[in-house]
Amino acid sequence: MAENLNLFTSTQVVIKDALNKLGYDEGMYELLKEPLRMLEVRIPIKLDDGKVKVYTGYRAQHNDAVGPTKGGVRFHPQVTEDEMKALSMWMTLKCGIVDLPYGGAKGGIICDPRQMSMGEVERLSRGYVRAISQIVGPSKDIPAPDVFTNSQIMAWMMDEYSRIDEFNSPGFITGKPIVLGGSQGRERATAQGVTICVEEAAKKRGLVMKDLRIVIQGFGNAGSFLAKFMSDTGAKVIGISDAYGALHDPNGLDIDYLLDRRDSFGTVTTLFENTITNKELLELDCDILVPAAIENQITAENAHKIRASIVVEAANGPTTSEATKILTDRGILLVPDVLASAGGVTVSYFEWVQNNQGYYWSEEEVNEKLYKKMVNAFENIYTVATTRNIDMRLAAYMVGVRKTAEAARFRGWV
Ligand code: GLU
User: Fold this and answer.
1) Which of 107, 350, 366, 373 has the most beta carbons within 10 angstroms of its beta carbon?
2) What are the residue ranges spanned by the domains of the chain?
């Protein structure tokens, strides 16, 4: 049978499994197997050449039993409705795992910002906010950055929302520039959370950071900051990649140099001649592999060839269910996406709290709070996994879904 690469249906299987293990019945699964709300919008934009193009966008709100929904907006040519549904469910899990008072949401627009001018991206961002304004807001659903969106785009979105709502509403969106109410540490938060997971996983396996060889797939927001943090711990980053290829040096790459040369979409390998492919990168001999790019990268086809002893998922959905099983059977410690990448939404929550109270924290305060949340979440999930003898993904789903399930039960929904 062909492997299931559909993120939505494969997520449903794990949610069902997790709810079963927690003792919930079919009714709870019926409630949580899909988003409560899914909005599809069409956004007409005037291009620079005077023509009009109509883009399709989505906002999926998985569940608001716990509180407002929360999650990023991605601008990518491969955005689909099913992907939005899966990603919104993962946000519910992430918020449960780090114990935030939110449910999950996700948004996206089918577009390729690499081919668009700044003006076109701005008009599209503003158009998206106008199109979804009815269902979002600081106490309803709070967007944030995701693949190919950044603090500038958040600023335009916030500005557009303030015009519709006629108030200055910094808590409408997170991941903003600091001068507009952004939080210290938000930009590097995802990578910081991944770093904490790498360190904790290494400890569990008795490994010392400075002796490790690390391979990172992807050089975007998460991958690039992560490469820097890893090399700062003294570990050797021996491989990195972008959408066009990968670089490998068994003696360690010069990360500062690469960071200096990367463009705003994380492209750097096009400047080099001796590149390898992304496929080869994943199979390199290393201690820790961090997929920090896109979905379905480790599959039944290559899971047997992974040589790392720890895989930490910084991207959303990089490993298929079948591959998860193969890696686990081979004794590889897999730290799942919903735990490893939860640092971003955690600091988004801190940003929203600071916006609501109008009092701002120092970077040290943010980092300290993030550290506590991530270490607690890691320990909690690791303990569930070892005591129940299940993989960390299923354990993370159990921990992540529990809060929403309990809230829905108390509300009398199920
Ligand atoms: N897009 C990020 C994620 O997938 C961050 C979401 C947020 O900050 O709300 O976790």
Assistant:
1) 107
2) 2-15+33-169, 189-340
What's the burial of 299, exposed, middle or buried (CB within 10 Å: 0-12/13-18/19+)?
middle
Average pLDDT over residues 142-146: 97
Domain 189-340 sits in CATH 3.40.50.720: yes
* Tokens linked to 278: 């992304």
CA–CA dist 409, 398 (Å, integer): 16
Task: Convert the pLDDT of each residue in 253-272 to its tens digit.
Answer: 999 999 999 998 889 999 99
Q: What is the pLDDT of residue 1?
A: 66
Please say if the pLDDT value at position 168 is more than 80.
Answer: no
CA of 96 to the centre of ligand 1 (A): 13
| Residue 26 CA to ligand 1 centre (angstroms) | 29
pLDDT given at position 5: 84
Give me the active site residues, please.
106
CA of residue 106 to ligand 1 center, whole Å: 8
* 3 state SS of 177: coil
Integer CA distances (angstroms), 260 to 75, 219, 231, 267, 318, in order: 24, 12, 15, 11, 27
Query: Average pLDDT, whole number, for the chain?
Result: 96
Give the percent of the chain with pLDDT over 90. Answer: 95
| Extended strands (E) in 211-303 | 213-217, 236-242, 245-248, 288-291
Architecture per CATH, domain 2-15+33-169, reads as: 3-Layer(aba) Sandwich (3.40)
Res 170 pLDDT > 90? no
Atom 8 (ligand 1) nearest CA: 345
Q: What is the pLDDT of residues 64-111, one digit of tens each?
A: 999 999 999 999 999 999 999 999 999 999 999 999 999 999 999 999
Pairing of β 73-75 and β 69-70 = unpaired
| Long-range contacts of 259-266, Cβ-Cβ distance < 8 Å, separation of 24 or more | 259/224, 259/227, 259/228, 262/219, 262/224, 264/150, 265/113, 265/114, 265/148, 265/220, 266/218, 266/219, 266/220, 266/221, 266/223, 266/224, 266/242
Q: What span, in angstroms and rounded, lies between the C-alpha atoms of 137 and 397? A: 27
Atom 9 (ligand 1) nearest CA: 71
Nearest-atom index, ligand 1, CA of 175: 8
